[in-house]
Write a structure and sequence with these properties.
This protein has seven helices and eight strands. The protein is globular. The chain is an alpha/beta fold. It is 37% helix and 20% strand. It has an eight-stranded mixed beta sheet, sandwiched between helices.
Length: 230
């Protein structure tokens, strides 16, 4: 079980984060970026999983500037609510939520006993993970799960500053497969894996959950972090 802490961004804004610690000394740290449903039970479980794998896991509440305390489920109503919060955060003046993610990276670095810091994100968090890999400092690896919007021409024009692994589903109506293929061509340095799966295939609380795809993607993600974080 993890605990809630407060992070302070460069502009002085304070936001909560869920932190899960490994049983022994951390071999590195992983920042976990939420979907549009907040730092809910699923994201906390993801963080717990990375802690069990030996990493300090930090999941910042990236909605906090727009709406504190978001903890949604996966109903249609929840999705609508989450999209509203995402829109509110997206319209914040730059650098907006990115400075909150940088605060999480900085905290992770100090708590990782000298280990390296990676980042992983899901859905909206996958997009933010890509932006973090391209614009923020202190990252040694990034893993994007079905990052909505990251395959657009605007996002694809960014250049990552650390190794990136990306997971997509070929049945994802939110992320057309032709844009994934275009992203692959634009970024041969990024490891891209495509699964026989839908959007949200990693989340066991969603109808689109795909156990075999989630298992394989996690195995690849953990191996990627071992390679780049130790």
């Amino acid at each position: 079980m993890g605990q809630s802490i407060n992070l302070t961004a460069a502009d002085g804004f304070t936001l909560p984060a869920y932190v899960a610690k490994p049983a022994g000394q951390a071999k590195g740290a992983v920042v976990v970026l939420q979907e549009i449903f907040g730092v809910n039970s699923h994201i906390r479980a993801v963080a717990d999983g990375y802690a069990a794998a030996g990493y300090l896991a930090v999941a910042p509440a990236t909605f906090h500037r727009a709406q504190p305390g978001v903890d949604l489920g996966y109903t249609e109503a929840d999705m609508g609510t989450g999209f509203g919060f995402k829109t509110a955060v997206d319209t914040l003046p730059a650098p907006g939520v990115m400075q909150d993610i940088q605060a999480a990276i900085d905290h992770a670095r100090t708590g990782a006993n000298g280990g390296k810091v990676g980042i992983v994100g899901y859905c909206w968090g996958g997009l933010l993970t890509w932006r973090s890999a391209c614009t923020l400092s202190g990252l040694s690896a990034a893993v994007c799960y079905y990052g909505g919007g990251m395959t657009t021409a605007e996002e694809s024009a960014r250049l990552p500053k650390c190794p990136v692994l990306a997971h997509f589903g070929n049945q994802d109506h939110w992320i057309p497969l032709d844009t994934v293929e275009a992203f692959k061509l634009a970024h041969p340095e990024v490891q891209v894996h495509i699964y026989e799966a839908n959007h949200g295939f990693n989340c066991d609380q969603r109808g689109s959950y795909n156990g075999p795809a989630a298992k394989l993607a996690l195995e690849r993600s953990l191996a990627f972090f071992v390679e780049n974080l130790g």
